Amino acid sequence: MNRVRFRLQVYVVILLGVIIAGTVGFMTLENLSPLDAFYFIIVTIATVGFGDIHPLTPAGQILTIFIILAGVGCFVGVAANAIEYILDEQERTRRLSKMNMIIGVFYSEVGIKLLKKFSAKDTGIEGIRSALIVSNNWSKEDFSLAASTLRKHAYHLDSRAIPLDDVHAFLSHHKGFMLALLENPHLVEHDTFTDLLHAVFHLAEELIAREHLIDLPGSDYDHLSADINRVYRLLVIEWLMYMQHMKQQYPYLFSLAMRTNPFDANASVIVR
What is the pTM of this model? Predict the structure, then answer.
């Protein structure tokens, strides 16, 4: 959890506790009505102090001292942390916006081409195709339902059916590009994309490390299949999340993405 948000929550809980306990205390010790007791707590904590209500008993005075010591500090803490939280969220939003630009570049250079290579060999693609044909009419609920479908789907690509030499050459060519993305400091803001990049980079390393990619032992093909399916699953799910982001923030990019959808056999970049 964000540390600023956690501190803000702690201060709010303590402040509410002070307000509730103080209100009940003044009702009991000073025989005030609930409204007068609450009013006195608020003007005390806010350091306004109109002076129209004041404690008449020693116990009420002691309670007031406690409220001043605890309540005023918490009130200041809530105000300061609320401002810090707002500024932190604004900065985080800017960082995520830059991160989504990086994700877009990744899919443009690497992701979409890998999706085409893998989905062409996916014998179970029909089971999730409806969750991948994104349209302009999709709502937030449609994206959530599609994401749930994709996460539950069992991905079973067989490395024997995939042109490994082609994938090897493609990833080797883009290794420097992917390494540069991994070094980007904004990755800390996006765990799922970081996992995807690590998975793709690992697959590239696995393929590059082998002198040849034909006539491998069955156990090695199975190992590569597991790596490929990890990449494929993460690619598909992250692609859907990125499509949702584009629909919400960049309709013109979303329009192009729909017309180049790697899962839509009828997709065409030509606007008709």
Answer: 0.70
